[in-house]
Write a structure and sequence with these properties.
alpha/beta, Aspartate Aminotransferase, domain 1, 5-stranded mixed β-sheet, 12 strands, about 40% helix
Length: about 400
Amino acid sequence: MNSNVSKPAHSWRPRTKAVRGGLSRTNFSETAEAMFMTSGYVYGSAEEAEASFDGTLDRMVYSRFKNPTVATFETRLAEMEGVPEGMNIACRATASGMAAVHAALLCQLRAGDRVVASKALFGSCHWIINELLPRYGVERVFVDGTDLAAWETALAKPTTCVFLETPSNPTLEIIDLAAVCELAHKAGAKVVVDNVFATPILQSPFELGADIVAYSATKHMDGQGRCLGGAVLGSPEFCNDVLGPFLRNTGPALSPFNAWVLLKGLETLDLRMERHCANALQVARFLETRPEVARVIYPGLESHPQHQLARRQMKGWGSIVAIELTGGKSSAYKLLNGVELIDISNNLGDAKSLMTHPWTTTHQRLAPEDKLAMGISEGLVRLSVGLEDADDLVEDLGRALES
C-alpha cells in the first residue's frame, strides 16, 4: 500500500487537503515535504535526455520549467481551491504575485485585443493594465467595478479578458462575480480574478464563473512575512497550453525554498484566516465608534455598501480594514506614527498587524485623479489586522487616535 495517501484526494475535506494535498514522499519516508534545491536534473542516456525534451518522457528537466517541491505546492493549492463539481483545475506557481498577474494576462493577449478591468486595483496591477498593455497594442477600458450597468456597456463589444479584484486593494470594493462573469462570457472574454484579499478559504471565484484566478502567495498563504510567491489557477488546458509556454520561456519561476515555506503556510491558512476575520471585525466595529474616523470600510460591517453581496459570495470578511480619517494626510500620519504595537509596512496578510498610507506608498505613482477615482484619499489608511489579541490592537489604535 502507498503510505503517502490513505484515500483519494478528491474525497478529502478542505482542511485535510491543506495539510496533505500533493504530498509525495521520497524513499526516505520523511514526515515533512522534501525540499529539492536543484536547478537541473541528470539523464541516464542521451536518448533519455532527448525524450525528456521532446515530451515523449514526462519528467523533470530544469527547475525553471518544473521542480518537485514547486509541483507539490501547485497541486496542494489546486486541490484547496473551490470549484464546481466536475470541473478540473491546475496551478502554476510564480516568483511573486505580480508575476502571476502579469503572466495570467500577457500569456493570452495579442495586439488588437481588448481588456476590460475594474478601476479599483492595486497600484502595480493598474500599471500593467493602464501602461504596459497599450504599449503592445492592447485596448484597455476601466469601469466602476460595483456598477453592473457600466460592465454591461463596456462588455457590449467583443473582449478578450476581464480583470478585477474583489475585495479590491485598498478600498475593499466588492464586485458581483457571478453577474460580471456572465456578461464577460457573452462578450467572449476570459475572466481573471485577483483573489488575494479573500484567499481560497473565503471566496471561490471558479464557483461563481471565473476562468482564471491569480494570487500573491506572499500575503496570507505565507502569512508570516518570510518570502515572495505567486500562483495562477485555471483549466488544465489553459495552464498547460497557454500559460505553461509563457512561464517556461519568460522564466518567473518560484524558488523551491519559497515553495516549501508556502507549503507549510497552506497547512494553517484556514485556522489563521478564521482569527484574522474575527480580529478584523472587532477592530472595525471599534473604529466605527471613534469621532476621529470619518469612515470605516470593511465588508463585515453593515455600513459597507456591498455588505449583502459580500455575505452572498464570501465565506468570511477578510483581514483588511480601510480607515478614512477626518483630518486628511496629517491625521493619517499621526495615526501611523502614534501606534506602538502595529507596524508601518506596505505588506499585508501577516501574523503581525501592519498599516500603510496608500496615497504615498502602494499607489504613490498613480496620478492624483486616478487615486481619487479609486476611492483613495490622502486620509485613507489600510490596516492589515494580524493574529495578536484583538483587545491589544483596539487599545493601541485607541491610544493613537486620542493622541
